[in-house]
Please model this.
Amino acid sequence: MKDLQYINISNYVTQNGKTASIQLSYQTFGQPLYDAPIVLVNHALTGNSNVCGNKGWWNDLIGENKCIDTNAYTVLAFNIPGNGYDGNSNNLIENYKDFTARDIAKLFLEGLKQLEIQKLFAVIGGSVGGAIAWELAALEPDLICNLVPIATDWKSTDWLIANCHIQDALLNNSREPLVDARMHAMTLYRTPESLTSKFRRSENTNTIFNVESWLNYHGKVLNERFNVSAYKLLNQVLRTVDITRGRSSFSAVASRISSNIHIVTINSDLFFKADENWETYVDLKLIKDNVTINEINSIHGHDAFLIEFGQLSKFLAPIFKTEISCNYETVLKKCI
Model:
């Protein structure tokens, strides 16, 4: 892992009143902090802060001369505490139900505070990372110039909560919790059409269907690189997304957000439904002018944000124009 750095957060009080000390880890890419506009990238459920470069999971989108050009921007990525990326078992979180998506956003804000970052050119994230981006914007309405939530939503729907409940049961009751939970999740990240296109009911030499082998493979791979407690925590974060909890209506909360909001949804997403995002867009357009929505057209479902990079880059290019000045102060003035 490239230059993993740490911020110590002492005596953090969670939304349900529990106290914890957190070691927040992060990585930076591209230009040095404070020398260029800062793009905060929030990782997805089994992702991490290694967003580009060697083994970067979003290399098709972020890097030199890519859509988010590291020649023009500073890219900052925090690890969701407890995701296990640093390999330090002391930083795992066993009491996972003490934390919510808003807690993660608040911890990220504390990290930004300690780094003395007062403005972000953009916050971008897919899936649970995009949901945390929504939570950040609700907590600090003037922090972000461009909010880019991808394949996500500002709330956990009943459908999502139901599937997180099944995931939690698998993680707590299965003999192979990571394997079984991952196999179940993969059927939600893709679509029936995607699996049909890929496998067409084919069998391998052991008379096992190839779709079964594919699921077994993904379960095995995650089991080798991830931790059960990390999966439990991230699943809990996913089920608790709601920027209106303890506040008022969505319109009232969103009306305070000064960011340009650029929603990217996926027509075939079974996890964060496109209809929900279009409804959000309509609600936002009643109270804000600076909001856009684009829809990825794909048979691959939720995972399309990690597959359809041509479409995604096309949608994001107007936001991350490389001809933008790299002068930090100039960009901040444009955001005001």
User: Anything to note?
Assistant: Residues 158-173 form the longest helix (16 residues).
